[in-house]
Amino acid sequence: MGWLIGFALPQRQECANVLHVRRAWRARIAAEVPEQQPGLGEDERRRVIEDRLREQAAVEATVFVRRREEALEREAWRAAARAAAEAQAVVERERAVAAESARQCLPCEDCGQARAAGLCEACGYRRETQALIEQAGLVAAAPSADPRDEGDVAAEVRASVEGEIARSRGVPADGGPGRPAWPPSRSRGETALAYGALQTVQQAASEYHRRALAMLGRTQEAEAEARRVYATEQNRWWFRANPTGTDCGPGGGHGDGSLTEDTTT
Ligand SMILES: [Zn+2]
Ligand SMILES: [Zn+2]
């Protein structure tokens, strides 16, 4: 029945509507049978045509079923892929939730407070405060030419800033009688205290910064002034040594001997 497959799968697909396709091959079979077997009687011809139509219908049904199965397979494959992706996403979400909740459960590295996600808020402020105090020490020591001063300046800055923090709380730097020294031990208002300390240090740090810049500015001005004076002096020497000088500048070919009073006049 190879010739029937040719009918069922027409090369020239004019229309996808199954009723129109069926009408088309019915018409072709009805026309072809008398052409291929012209000697048949009326009844015989009708019987042959009906046989072929039944075979063609069977082929069409087979093709239809095969296509349907293929479509179902594709759909099943897509559904399986979707399900696998969804399952993977669920696993990943669960993993992320577990990791986040494990992280949340970590105690504070600094004070040991439970379920602090590794670092409690108060200790976070304290770390920032300490970092800023150190930075302020470096900033304050920056204008100093002597690197040995750095440690002293940093220690002074630390003492001063910690004093300021204590004053801002209305307690002496050593904590005072019955009061915790800074940094305070854990208490209910600890986070607020730590935050207040950070704010105090931020203000102090910006003041150290401003002062350091002002000092550096003054130093630079003084250096620029010294350079101006030196240049003026050099020019004066040069002019005295070479009143008509055209051949070279200061430090040029004359060496130091030429800087005596002019001998050419
Ligand atoms: Zn059609
Ligand atoms: Zn902590």
From TrEMBL:
Annotated stretches, region: Disordered: 165-188, 240-265
Superkingdom field: Bacteria
Name recorded for this polypeptide: Uncharacterized protein
User: What is the originating organism of this protein?
Assistant: Streptomyces albireticuli
Q: What is the lineage of its organism?
A: Bacteria, Bacillati, Actinomycetota, Actinomycetes, Kitasatosporales
